[in-house]
Amino acid sequence: MDKLLSLTFIGLSRGAVYSAFALALVLIWRAARIVNFAQGAMAVATAYAAYSVTKATDSYWLGFVAALVGGLVLGALVERGVMRFVDHSAPLNNVIVALGVVLVITAIVGMIYGNQFLPFEGPFDQRPLMVGGTGLLSPYDLFVLGTVLLIVVLLALLFTRTPVGLRMRASAFAPEVSRLLGVNVAGMLTLGWALAAAVGAVGGMLVIPTELGLHPHAMDLVFVSAFTAAVVGGLDSPVGAVIGGIFVGLVLTYSTGYIASDITPVAILVLLLVVLLVRPGGLFSTTAARHV
Amino acid sequence: MTATEEVENTRTQGATTLARASTVRGGAFGRTLVRHAVYALVAIVVLIVLTSALAGTGNTFLNYQLAMVCAYLCATAGLTFLTGINGQLSLGHGALMATGAYGAALTIRALADRGIEAVWAVFVALLVGVLAALVVGAVIGAAAARLRGPYLAGVTTVIAIVVPAITTTFDGIFKGDQGLSFVTPSPGAVPALLSNEEWQAYLGIGCAVLVMFLLANLISSRFGRQFRAVANDEVAAKLSGINIARTQVLAFVVSAGCAGLGGALMAAITQQAAPGAYSLTLSLYLLMAIVIGGLGSLAGAVWGALLLVALPDLSTRITDSLELSPDLAQKLDGNLALAIFGLFLIIVMIVAPGGIQGLVRRLSGRLSARRRSAGS
Fold first, then answer.
1. Which of A161, B141, B272, B328 gives a 20 to 30 Å CA spacing to A253?
2. C-alpha span between A93 and A81 (Å, rounded)
3. Packing angle, helices B244-270 and B222-232, rounded to 10
4. Residue B132: count of CB within 10 angstroms of its CB
5. Cβ of B342 and A114 within 8 Å?
6. Which residue windows are transmembrane per the record (chain A) (predicted)?
C-alpha cells in the first residue's frame, strides 16, 4: 500500500511534466495542424542555453528565465524561418521538415557542448519528504507540480479571457474570416509557436534534472511519452493533454515500479498502440475524423 | 460541391484509374520484366567490374563502403516503396533494420556454436533476418494501416526508440549495449583470390540488385498501381475495388522485408549487431536519404544510399583536414554530417521536393528538348 501511494505521487509529478510537454504539442497542432516533431530537440536547445547561463551567473533562476526566453525566440524562429515555407498540402511534408530541424538542432548543440552527459541540477532537494514513514513528495516534485499548474492556469486565462487569446483561437478556427476582420493571422501563428516552444522549454527544464543529465538526445523518450499523452487526450484538446499527461505518467511509473525498471519504452509502445487502435481520436474525442 | 456530386466525381476518378490500369496489361508487362532483367544484369556486371577495380587500388575500405551502400540501398529502396509509392511515412525503419541484424547475428552465432561455419550459413542468416523483419513488419503494418499522418509518424518514432531499448531489457539474449559480435563465414578456400571485403561487396551487390529488381517489377505491376492508387486517393481507390487495409499492410510487410535484409547485410558486413548502430538517428537518416534522393523513385533510393555512405565520410575528411584541437574535432565528428543532412533535408523539402532524381530528370528533359529543337 505504501508502495502504491509513493508510486502514485511519483507518477503525478512525472505526469505533470508530460502534461506540459503534451500541451505544447497541442498548442501547435491547434494553431497550425502540425505535430511538432522538433519539440524535444527545441527543448533540449533551450536547456543548453539555461545550462550556459546558470554556469556563468551561478543562478538557477536566471537559467530558467533564459530557457523561457530562448523557447519564445526559438519557436518564433522555427516558424518564421522554416515552417512557414513548407508546402502543407501533404501532411508528410511538415513532419519531414520538422525532423530536419531535429537533426540540425541536435548537431549544433552537439558541436558546441559535445555528446556527453552534462550535470544539470534542479533548484530543490529531490529526496522525498517522509510523512508517517512513507516517502511521498520531494520539494522538487512540489515545484514541478506547482509550475505546471501555473502554466495551465495562465494558458487557460490567456485563451479565454484576453483579446490576444481570442484572436489566436479565431485565426486557428477560421483563418480567412479572421483576416477579413483585421486579425494578424500570420502573427498569431508565430505567437502560437513561440508560446508552445516556451511551454516545451519549461517542460524540459523540469524533466532534465530528474534524468541522467543534459544530453542532445535527453528529450527523445520524453517527447515520445508526451506525444502518447497528447494522443491519449486527443490532439485537439488542451484539457485532454493535461489529463493524458498525468495518465501516461501514472501508467509508466506503475509499470516500472511493479514489472521491471527498464520497461518504460515498451510500456509507452503498448499504451500508444492500444489507445490508437481502440480510440484513434483519443479518449476524449467525440467525432470520427476520417471516413473511408 | 454536394455529396452526390462528390461521390460521382470520385467514381469517375476510380473508373479512369481502372481504365488506365487495363490498358497497361498483358504484353507490356512481359516487356517490362525483360527490361528490368537486362538492367539488373548490366548492374551486376558493372558492379562486379567496379569491385575488382576497387580491390585493385589496394584500399580495402572502398569495397567495405561499396558493401555498405548496398546494405543501405536495400533499406532505402524498401522505404521508398512504402513512403514514396504507398504514402505511408515510417520513422521506424532503423528498428526494422535492427530486427534483421539481430536475426542474422543470432543465426550465425547459433550455427557457429554447432560448428557450422560454411558460406551457406551467411545465406541462412540473411534469410532469417528477412523473416524476422517480415514478422515484425506485419505486426506494425497491421497497426499502421489504421493510422494516418502524424499518428503513424508518432507510432513509428516510438518503435524506432523502443526496439533498440529492448536489447537492454532482454540483455540475456541480446547482450545489451555491447551487442552481439561474431565472425561472418567467408569462402576461405580461396583467400588469395577473394579478400574478405570483396566477398562482402559481392554479397551486398547480389542482395541490392535482387531487391531493386523485385521492387521495380512490383511497382510496375498491377499491385504497384494499387499501391499508388491508395497513396493518391483512398476514396477513389476504395471505389475501384481495392482493399485499402490489405494493400497497406502488404506494402509495410514488403518494405520491412527489404529493411530487414539491409540490416542483416549490415550485421554480416560489420560482423556485429549492437543497438547503438540502429538508433532513432538511423531511422531519420534513412528517411532523409530517400527525400534528398528523390521521394517516389527507386533511382532516388540509390542516390540516398550513396549519400548515406559518402556524406559522413566527406565530413570526417573535412574535420581531419582542418587540423583542429582533439576536443573540437571530437565534437565535430559525426555532428557535422548530421548538420549537413538536416540542412539538406529542410532545403530540399522547401526548394526542390523532387530531390536529386528530380533535378536529374529535369536536366535530362531539358537536354533532350534542346536536341529535339536542334534536330527539327
1. B141
2. 16
3. 110
4. 25
5. no
6. 6-27, 34-53, 59-78, 90-113, 142-160, 181-208, 214-232, 239-260, 266-289
Which one-letter amino acid corresponds to residue B172? G
**CA-CA distance, B323 to B336, in Å (whole number)?**
15
Q: Which of A89, A103, A274, A278 to mutate to test the interface with B (most CBs of B within 10 A)?
A: A103
Please report, to the nearest 10 degrees, the dihedral formed by the alpha carbons of residues B119, B120, B126, B130 taken in order: 180
- Structure-block grid coordinates of residue A31: 494553431
Give me A221's grid cell: 523518450
Contact A85/B at CB under 8 A: yes
Start-end of H helices in chain B: 3-23, 27-56, 60-79, 93-113, 120-144, 149-169, 171-174, 196-219, 222-232, 234-239, 244-270, 280-294, 298-321, 326-332, 335-351, 355-375
Specify the CATH number of the domain B14-278. 1.10.3470
Task: Indicate the residue type of A287.
Answer: T
* Rounded-to-integer distance, Cα A6 and Cα B29, Å: 67
Asked if A87's CB is within 8 angstroms of B162's CB, the reply is no
Q: What contacts B118, CB < 8 A, 6 or more positions away?
A: B185
A103 vs B341: CB contact, 8 Å cut-off?
A: yes
β-bridge mates for residue B273, sequence order? B180
Contact between B149 and A111 using a beta-carbon 8 Å cutoff: no
* List of long-range contacts for B189-196, beta carbons under 8 Å, 24+ apart: B195/B55, B195/B60, B195/B63, B196/B60
Task: Pick the residue of A101, A102, A104, A262 with the most B CBs within 10 A to test the interface with B by mutation.
Answer: A104
Give the residue among A240, A221, A239 at the shortest CA–CA distance from A231: A240
In terms of phi and psi (left: phi > 0; alpha: psi -120 to 50; beta: otherwise), the region of B266 is alpha
Q: What is the pLDDT along chain B (376 residues), one digit of tens a residue?
A: 444 555 455 444 544 444 444 444 456 667 888 888 888 888 888 888 888 888 777 777 888 899 999 999 999 999 999 988 888 888 889 999 999 999 999 999 998 888 877 788 889 999 999 999 999 999 888 888 878 777 888 888 888 888 888 887 777 788 877 888 888 877 765 555 677 788 888 889 999 999 999 999 999 888 888 898 888 888 888 898 888 889 999 999 999 999 999 999 999 999 888 888 888 889 988 998 998 888 888 999 999 999 999 888 888 888 878 777 777 777 777 788 888 888 988 988 888 878 888 888 888 888 888 877 776 5
Measured in whole angstroms, the distance separating CA B358 from the mean position of its chain's CA atoms is: 18
Please give the residue of chain A at the shortest CA–CA distance from B156. A269
Distance CA A40, CA A24 (A): 10
| Cβ proximity of B264 and B121 under 8 Å | no
Q: Beta strand B272-273 with B180-181: parallel, antiparallel or unpaired?
A: antiparallel
Cell numbers 522505404: residue: B79
What cell was used for B364?
A: 535530362
Q: Domain ranges for chain B, please list them.
A: 14-278, 280-376
| CB contact (8 A) between residue B345 and residue A235 | no
